[in-house]
Amino acid sequence: MNARKVISVALIAAMALGLFLPGLSFAEDAADTIYTNGNIYTVDDEFSKASAIAIKGTKIIAVGADEAVIEARRGPDTKVIDLGGRTVIPGLVESHMHYQALGTRLEQLDIFQKPKEEILALVEAEAERLEDGEWITASGWNHELWTPNTWPTKEDLDAVAPNNPVSLSRVDGHSTWFNSMAISIGGITKETPSPTGGTIMKTEGGELLGIFTDTAATLISSKIPSEVSNERKLDRYKKADQSVVSYGITTLVDAGISAADTNVLKSGYEAGTLKVRAYEMLSAGEDKVYIDAGNKPVRDLYDGKLSVNAVKLYADGSLGSRSAWLMRPYSDAPGITGDPRYARYEDYEAVVKQASDYGFQIGTHAIGDAAVDQVLDAYENVLGAALKDRRFRIEHFQIVAPEDIPRAVKAGVIASMQATHATSDMNMAEDRVGPERIKTSYAWRTIRNEGGIIANGSDAPVELVNPYHGLYAAVTRQGRDGEPAGGWYAGEALTREEALRSFTIWGAYGIFAENDRGSLEEGKYADFVVLDRDYMTCPASEIKDIAAVKTVIGGEEVYNATADTPGADAGTASGFADEASVAAWAKPFFERLIGSGIISGYADNTLKPKGEVTRAEFTKMAVAALDIKMGDAPKSFANDVREGQWYKEPVDIASSNGIIEGLSEGSFGPNERITRQDICVIMYRALNAGGVQLPASAGATFADQTAIADYAKDAVSMLRQLDIVGGRPDGAFDPRAFATREETAKIICGIIDYVGTAAAAE
């Protein structure tokens, strides 16, 4: 078998970042740590660059050129770390997410953006596992991605979970899908009226559909047992904390929390188990509970780690659920204008005044143009000229009347927006509001042209928390599939510098923190992230694929994707000192591939086991692995890295043999990430092409399917039977998910073993 007929995967050599330099000089105000040899974007007023950062305690004491910083700030005990030329940006500010909810999502069924049939299968499996009567809860479905894109029904859930109440929240959190048992527990009948701020959806025949929006959903969700211990809540915060810092997020704005849960957070920060800086918004009504308990708005407890300084209000629902409040009816639903959260304007203004009088900053969820207009009216009526100094916010600020954009900017109201909402909503947004209103929707460039700033975030877990998805969307106005070509209303895109500012210094300004974070300047917190590529110069298509190599908060390294091991050699086991990040089930497979030289020489000179694999990487890995197994010397790609050609030959060979054409996305972009189902099909077809006949035949037509793609079913099934794709730590194998390097190592080793077994049998 000529293994070069097969595909390829690239492999990333582990490269140690930490180097200790001998002492050079003594400074009276010596740094604890100096990071040198970096490509550092400070994001100061001039967007200047530097190569070194000196840190003492939790603060930056110098930023500049290597020689100057070392000479001025190095003492006999200063640790000097060589960044190896890597790019450094300020720690990212996530300006709108849901901290505990992200941790909760990590505990629940994973239904995020999945096909309806797959969701129903997961619910059925969960119902079989649970006792009758136990609740099944999850969130993340999106009917706009289904075919047909119609609302699901209670009968869909009744068929798979007749004896368990089921509550599944839509991806935007503004619609909930219930089964009949849950609806019965809520005491809802078809005669029950919709409450203010929500809708009980019905069929054309007047029967309950099973979908409840916003406040209507709480009629049932309030019946779900909610007794959760503080220990469990803290564990959820820990899970979310570990997730966000792994992306380089160093500050987050938590959009809605109970007064009681502020004490849970305090316990986590007092114990030192939570690392990210959290700026908390109390949920509507919780501000009074908080104040009545003898508290007051506070900022920067625990050395800048925790603030409770804002209140989160709601003015409407969401566009996807048609509960965002519009001035005129929805273009695709005549007669419907959405759901204002308050029956009377006076009621909303009263809650704004109460929170304002307590001294809180206010952020109001407003997606529709009628909601935005109401919020601006209340802000201006309550504060008048003082509004600019109070930095009140509008969360989302999506569908906005043309006159309200300059009005908001002039008043100093901060647009807290989420770039990925535009690229997630673009498949239905124009249908909802029509060709005219869409022109001032998700209007980032218009806001900038008026002189405004944008505090960017993700709204996780509504969207994935990954900030590089947000940076990519802000710059390209494209989905992560690269569509549409040229971008969706691309004239509203941000520049790369603006996008980075929206995730750093502008986000810091939005929480009164621009003087201590958001840029890398002397006197500010030493919060920064080391990246695996240059955000400012890499191809725009790669921004979404950026990964954090290291995250530092207040001078403390809180995340490290690679081993900071002095002297570690790439391509040897010693180069993988961060064993905790390599799942135990994958470790022996890594060791085999390292020992064989299969996973050395990656293009980016790092090995992040949990990082996602590109098609180019996979192509090279497969070729090298099978060459070694068949007794041939693997081809060396080491000299071609700088030209970007290290993967070209195996990709060309695989393409010419029909092995990698027509994958699920319809193309084979070597630098794009690869799904598990694509890996299965590629290996399956490659082995067959190489003369190793496998038990089934992979389909020749690679159609784009919404469920498990038909073209992958045989390959996935066969590799499962051989335990090549089984045994994942999460107990599941979602073929359409992007593959990580650790699980790819296991797949490659499993196939090598199978090839050996087949050869022996012959």
Describe this entry's structure for a reader.
With about 750 residues, the protein is an alpha/beta fold. The protein is built from 26 helices and 25 strands. An 8-stranded parallel sheet has the order 8-15-16-18-19-20-21-22. The protein has a 6-stranded mixed sheet with strand order 3-2-7-23-24-25, with no helix packed on it. Helix 22 (about 615-630) packs across helix 23. It is globular. The two termini are about 15 Å apart.
Structural class: alpha/beta
Please bin the fraction of helical residues: 25-40%
In angstroms, what is the radius of gyration? 27 Å
Q: How confident overall, as mean pLDDT?
A: 81
Strand % is 15-25%
| Shape field | globular
What secondary-structure arrangement, pairings included, does this model have?
Blueprint: E1 33-36, E2 39-41, E3 49-50, E4 52-56, E5 59-64, H1 66-73, E6 79-82, E7 87-90, E8 92-97, H2 99-105, E9 109-110, H3 116-129, E10 136-141, H4 154-160, E11 166-170, E12 175-178, H5 180-185, E13 200-202, E14 208-213, H6 214-221, H7 230-245, E15 249-257, H8 259-271, E16 277-283, H9 286-292, E17 298-300, H10 301-304, E18 306-314, H11 345-358, E19 361-366, H12 369-383, H13 387-390, E20 393-396, H14 404-411, E21 414-417, H15 419-425, H16 429-437, H17 444-449, E22 454-456, H18 467-476, H19 496-502, H20 505-509, E23 528-531, E24 548-553, E25 556-560, H21 587-595, H22 615-629, H23 648-656, H24 676-689, H25 710-721, H26 741-761
Parallel strand pairs: 1-6, 2-7, 8-15, 9-10, 10-11, 15-16, 16-18, 18-19, 19-20, 20-21, 21-22
Antiparallel strand pairs: 1-4, 2-3, 4-5, 7-23, 11-12, 12-14, 13-14, 23-24, 24-25
Helix pairs in contact: 2-7, 7-8, 11-12, 12-14, 15-18, 21-26, 22-23, 22-26, 24-25
